[in-house]
Amino acid sequence: MGGYSxxxxxxxxxxxxVYSYLNKDKFDLYRIHILKDKWVYVDENDLEHPVNKADFSxxxxxxxxxxxxxxNAIHGTPGEDGLMHAYFELLNITHTSCGxxxxxLTFNKRDLLxxxxxxxxxxxxxxxxxxxxEINEDSIIAKVKLPCFVKANKSGSSYGITKVHKKEDLKHAxxxxxxxxxxxxxxxFLKGTEVSVGVLKFNxxxxxxxxxxxVTENDFFDYEAKYEGKSQEITPARISKIQEEKVSxxxxxxxxxLKMTGFSRSEFIFxxxxxxxxxxxxxxxxxxxxxxPQQAAVAGIDLPTLFENAITEVLS
Length: 316
What we know:
The chain is of the alpha+beta class. Helix content is about 30%, strand content about 25%.
């Protein structure tokens, strides 16, 4: 839990929820904080013990401990962008997330949409910028129209996202996004019902969880809406049967086409009955109030079962 991005505090919350709900009669559990300045095991007394990065082990009372499985609850870098995944795979340590390629691909919104487009996955019109590129406001607006969204390409929890209504606000929105990432995606505004679809391997089978409808009090589903109560998350979503079937099909197709494992949560907006993909999260929030646990609860899967399944799937 933890990480190097703006999401590290949310990740610590997720990790502590996983720790509290996993069955301690079945598992020996260790809270590992991965932070910019330290990798440490935090014991029951909140004392810190360093992690040996050479083999991802810890030492307690001179006893060396190696791990059978890592439950990854890191949002953002390095736990959602492929870095930790590759590290664990090099060390031959089993972990609950997808592979390093899938993590890197889904974390990069621009690359993900490009890879999925040939499969028929619909998405908003978009314009790409890299730090240092000339900013031609007229060209951008001609491509995506107004209003539009300016997003950090590799970021989560709505950090670095601005909805732009006027041309004169575009450059400031770009500056905000560049604080999170050196790559930007600018997308056309899609007006419609927003939904979130959780997919996971459950008992060995790709399973689509009940769909969540996002209704925000704010201009869009931003950080405040996600984490400070400025939205409603309605599960199951108030959508038609045909919408439910289509978005479930595409969420499952994306999961299988990308050869995903572990958790995923895909965000879509409906234009009429057609779902348009916004992004795919491979380390979604796992607090008691997070969307994917809400969906699991509606499906009759409690948190101990949800978290234990993630471990048994990769250890079987």
